[in-house]
Design brief:
The chain is an alpha/beta fold. 45% of the residues lie in helices and 14% in strands. It has a single domain, classed as NAD(P)-binding Rossmann-like Domain (Rossmann fold), CATH 3.40.50. It has 8 helices and 7 strands; from the N terminus they run βαβαβαβαβαβαααβ. It has a 7-stranded parallel sheet with strand order 3-2-1-4-5-6-7, sandwiched between helices. α2 links the parallel β2 and β3. The model has no long low-confidence stretch (mean pLDDT 97). Bound molecules: NADPH dihydro-nicotinamide-adenine-dinucleotide phosphate. NADPH dihydro-nicotinamide-adenine-dinucleotide phosphate (NDP) binds next to α1 and α6. The site of NADPH dihydro-nicotinamide-adenine-dinucleotide phosphate has 28 residues, from α1 and α6.
Length: 259
């Protein structure tokens, strides 16, 4: 019989309706956690919730645009109305656009800052009391792009926000430790998700061929990851097995950053 290491835990997962966030939601539910998915598109949320209904856990959804900072407090309140106590917050919703530095205008930078950094910061702040009451934990989904760049992927705007997430992870871990709240991050390598597919779709035919050749050479494990390759690490970091781990940024990247 499988050990349910997240049984009786309640997890809020931003961007939980698709990609890495959905993979994490599924793995959490498999391990006994109740899950609340936050994303914009209600149809996608309902589809994700329907899949998760197969597990014997509570599944909730909330439609919200986290990049709209004027409503982030309201979003947090809606979450607390669903669950006044929270054990796990996964800050996963994020945006990645690859734009040359010279062409990155303020709107493009703000697109990344608002969702990846500010929404993460203030959602965590507004939910902190609910996490503290449970001696809970925060898991930020960062990226290797905070410190490792790739040819043909100009990433100043994106990388800046992921570097901020890494620093936020460590600085909040330092401050929150005394309150019994752990804060960690996962830095995934390239994961086969709608976000990555959309970026590949924007490349020329030649660019696509180069990209797939590059993947084979730069990944020691020889392939990109799937969401399921990330979710095991998320389950571990969110569980009591990781009770003395805080401020860690765990590379889950097929060995990319050894290179
Ligand atoms: P996807 O685009 O595949 O999924 C994003 C999820 O976030 C969806 O559920 C989406 O739902 C939701 N979302 C997007 N924008 C908002 C918003 N404004 N408000 C609320 N929810 C939103 O992304 P990935 O799974 O690829 O990426 C998830 C995280 O992992 C990101 O932080 C990304 O930077 C990071 N990452 C991804 C890598 C990869 O290779 N895929 C590699 C390293 C890190 P909806 O559109 O309905 O709102």
């Amino acid at each position: 019989e499988k050990r349910m290491i997240l049984k009786n835990k309640r997890a809020v997962i931003t961007g939980g309706s698709d990609g890495i966030g959905f993979g994490i939601a599924k793995a959490f539910a498999e391990n006994g956690a109740d899950v609340l998915l936050v994303a914009r598109n209600e149809t996608k949320l309902a589809e994700a919730a329907a899949v998760l209904a197969a597990f014997e856990v509570e599944v909730k959804t909330l439609s919200a645009d986290l990049s709209d900072l004027s409503t982030i407090q309201k979003t947090a309140q809606s979450i607390l109305e669903i669950w006044p106590a929270i054990d796990i917050l996964v800050n996963n919703a994020g945006i990645a656009r690859f734009i040359p530095f010279a062409e990155t205008d303020e709107a493009a930078l703000d697109l990344h800052l608002n969702l990846n950094v500010k929404a993460t910061y203030f959602l965590t702040q507004h939910l902190f009391g609910a996490l503290e009451a449970q001696k809970g934990c925060v898991l930020n989904i960062s990226s290797y792009f905070s410190h490792r760049m790739l040819p043909g992927r100009p990433s100043t705007a994106y990388s800046l926000t992921k570097g901020a997430m890494d620093a936020f992870t460590k600085s909040l871990a330092y401050e929150a430790g005394a309150k019994g709240v752990r804060v960690n991050a996962i830095a995934p390598g390239t994961i086969n998700t709608p976000l990555v597919q959309a970026n590949i779709d924007r490349l020329s035919e030649e660019g696509k061929a180069k990209f797939s050749e590059m993947i084979k050479t730069i990944y020691p494990l020889g392939r990109v990851g799937e969401s399921e390759d990330v979710s095991g690490a998320a389950v571990f970091l969110a569980s009591d097995a990781a009770r003395w781990i805080t401020g860690a940024i765990l590379a889950v990247d097929g060995g990319l950053t050894t290179n």
